[in-house]
Design brief:
Chains A, B: Keywords: Hydrolase, Metal-binding, Protease. Two copies of one chain form a homodimer. A six-stranded mixed beta sheet of chain A has the order 1-2-6-3-7-18, sandwiched between helices. Chain A has a four-stranded antiparallel beta sheet with strand order 12-14-10-15. Chain A has 13 helices and 20 strands. Chain A starts with a helix and ends with a helix. The radius of gyration of chain A is 23 Å and the shape is globular. Helix content of chain A is 35%, strand content 22%. In chain A, a hairpin with a 2-residue loop joins β4 and β5 (111-113). Chain A has two domains: 4-194 and 366-456, Aminopeptidase (3-Layer(aba) Sandwich), CATH 3.40.630; 196-250 and 296-363, Alpha-Beta Plaits (2-Layer Sandwich). By secondary structure, chain A is α/β, with parallel strands linked by helices. Chains A and B meet through β10, β11, α5, α6 and α9 of A and β10, β11, α5, α6 and α9 of B. β12 (297-306) of chain A pairs antiparallel with β12 (297-306) of chain B, so a sheet runs across the interface.
């Protein structure tokens, strides 16, 4: 029986060449100008899945960017694993902060540097290459399907509808996803829960035109001042979110579970040093990992208004804008939270301005139970490759579609990802370590055998 | 004796052609790319002053953009009037809100539409054309000097030094300035006071890199949230500025003077309707005109940070920025206010962020006394042309250099301007009514004779 380590060693240059070709297509889903790139990327992945040994693969339209589907059915009575991933990436601005072209991957210091190197082109590729190894060496005993979408970074707005339409096509026993992080370079980690998301945009309008801040200053509401005050009022001095009803559905985590979480390795000094901050900041009464893992949060993701150029301009703008998102925990419902936010912002706005609140994408929180056969198989795969039991992680991030899969397809997802906080996903200078890229491929190949055994129990 | 009305009628097309040539040069002083345009504009004005009949005119370097100086000495024993104006203009963004090219003036609805149509190219041109009329018709009995600068919109950072150097060259009995507004299309107005200005820029830094708002949200300070809270804390619920010491030097206006001010025609409903606002907003206990005329104010002129593009991005940015200006009243000192602001912002910043506060330009408030011979001459000129005594105005705007003239040159300035609030100076779609452009020229010609008589009293 061929050895995966040998196979990787013999094929690593090709693996990287193929991944780099994928990364070079700037598939930014939030920017309309990249629409043609989305289709090119989908075609590229279809070809990768076919070359890896799938029986079939195709680019299937959705109401937004297309979804790549592929499958290999080795035995209709064997378990079926559905690989989910996404081929779209985040915007690259501020582009001037990148040390090299975000869409021209380079290898430096043992890492691949590029937008999408990790999230999710690099991680998703670990699944395609693991599949390739098992097929080419005759070791695949499960059925495998692929569902690779192009709108994850904008909240997968069309995948729920697509899943409903293609429910039979993607039917499977478990979904395996590599789009999360490990807590150390060689510390295997399985994400047990994800936060949900409600993402809002606020527009505050004062006068119907930009005004001279001398002639009108002090007498007419300045929408930036008003917006700042409204944002400030959303979080109180204890770090609690001050939107009425916000915490009503929050599932409080037991003291026992909090004690479990506290056992995960974490060094606050190193954390602060890595971010170059003197102090962390958050909800009173909770640790840093609890603040991101089991508590909701509210962040302004963007703000703009007035004169933002060089020098000075004495203007009171007509409008000010903010993008504000909230991370949610079990059992918060994102539509309800969006409604509470909107009602609150409309209620606190002074009569001197007009306020418009709209919801961008949102998503439900998710929990991956540790007794699930897929979770147990993933744990064993981690032990095989990293030599340790994986750390169970309560992640602060969101993959809203995971909750949708459970609701629409009735399938649980296993979050076995190979990222790391140092990879700067969503930021300038995203990277992915070669170590984790290759170990990820290896761990994925081990998952299948263990999953087959677990399903027989 | 030739009549000014006839002269205007016969030369109006030429006047407009010449003004349009001036407006077409995009002399935006706050943007470095326009540096060559500043020199071109100065040369254009030098030529205009020479053609109008000056003995001499030249473009004199300063440490920034050059100053245009010109003069006609008709009698060394006669009074000398120094005309001050500025040839630089404000930026034009957001440029997509303009109905026509900001630097291609058009006449529509009885107005000239362009950046600088009013502020100050159009208004300054009323002085050059009045001078031309008096010279060409042999009616000039005063000496006239011109000092036209190119950095007013960025706070005249180099004119104080220039005035010290050329103090003898620009020596005069009074300074006449057309760079202010009338309170109605045909309601003559003399500005009696101007507010001062302190203009600050604030940079708030959280982590050393943009962060994923899911992974870090709730545990690491978000500089936008922090900045919003800091801005909100600067103004209390009564509209008072909450910076310690801010009001210490404010000259409170007497009940008698406030009663005088209240007699100026003002219709709050029309004011609100023109701005399309449901309510005004400002310091408790003061009227709208008091809020801009005799009370200081604090406005955010620009704010930016995080993702401001299309769609959504779940980022906690590393930095957030704001441009914040304060309008000052007699006896506030702008350097002291800048220091108070900086100290306050540094004091209220939480330890989870770093704050950098820098001062842009500033300027002192100014008062123009009604018993001054220049003020009385301007009043009479207004009566001649508009048929009414001018309204004395406490303006909310700032012309910081006016206080500098008093300090360095020892000369009082008379603020006889022809703008109007509907002209949208500093905003998209700036304009200047032809009515006020031509009446301005007319009123300026009347000023000189009255000033000569007042000086003989």
């Amino acid at each position: 029986m061929s050895n995966i380590k040998t196979y990787i060693e013999e094929n690593k240059e090709r693996f990287l060449d193929e991944l780099f070709g994928l990364i070079r297509i700037p598939s930014i889903s939030s920017q309309a100008e990249h629409k043609p790139d989305m289709v090119r990327t989908a075609e590229y992945i279809k070809d990768s899945i076919l070359s890896a040994g799938a029986d079939r693969a195709e680019v299937i339209p959705s109401s937004g960017n297309p979804v790549v589907f592929g499958e290999k059915i080795v035995d209709p009575t064997a378990p079926t694993v559905l690989i989910y991933g996404h081929y779209d990436v985040m915007p690259v601005d501020p582009v001037e902060l990148w040390n090299s072209n975000p869409f021209e991957p380079v290898i430096r210091d043992g890492r691949i540097w590029a937008r999408g190197a990790n999230d999710d082109k690099g991680q998703m590729f670990t699944q395609i290459k693991a599949f390739e190894y098992l097929v080419k060496t005759g070791q695949l005993k499960n059925n495998v399907k692929f569902m690779i979408e192009g709108e994850e970074e904008i909240g997968s707005p069309n995948l729920e509808e697509w899943c409903k339409k293609y429910k039979d096509l993607v039917a499977a026993d478990v979904i395996l996803i590599s789009d999360t992080s490990m807590i150390g370079e060689n510390t295997p980690t399985l994400t047990q829960s994800l936060r949900g998301l409600a993402y809002m945009e606020v527009e505050v309008t004062g006068a119907n035109q930009d005004l001279h801040s001398g002639i009108f200053g002090g007498a007419v509401a300045n929408p930036i001042n008003v917006l700042a005050k409204m944002i400030a009022s959303c979080i109180d001095d204890n770090g609690h979110i001050a939107i009425p009803g916000f915490y009503d559905d929050v599932l409080e985590v037991s003291a026992e579970d909090r004690a479990m979480l506290a056992r995960a390795p974490f060094n606050l000094d190193e954390y602060k040093k890595a971010l170059d901050i003197d102090e962390v900041q958050g909800e009173a009464g909770f640790s840093t990992n609890e603040r991101t893992g089991i508590r909701p949060s509210l962040d302004v993701n963007g703000i703009w208004g007035g004169y933002t150029g060089e020098g000075s301009k004495t203007v009171t703008p007509s409008k000010a804008f903010a993008k504000i998102s909230m991370r949610l925990v079990p059992n918060q419902e994102h539509h309800k939270i969006s409604d509470l936010f909107k009602a609150h912002f409309e209620a606190i706005a002074p009569k001197s301005v007009k306020v418009k609140v709209t919801a961008h994408h949102g998503g439900a929180p998710y929990v991956s139970p540790s007794e699930h056969p897929g979770y147990r198989a993933a744990s064993k795969a981690c032990v095989d490759v990293f030599g340790d039991q994986p750390i169970p992680l309560r992640s602060g991030g969101s993959i809203p579609i995971v909750a949708v899969f459970e609701k629409v397809l009735g399938i649980k997802s296993i979050l076995m990802g190979y990222g790391h906080e140092s990879d700067r996903v969503h930021s300038p200078n995203e990277s992915f370590s070669l170590n984790r890229f290759f170990k990820g491929i290896e761990a994925n190949t081990h998952f299948y055998g263990h999953y087959n055994e677990e399903m027989k129990k």
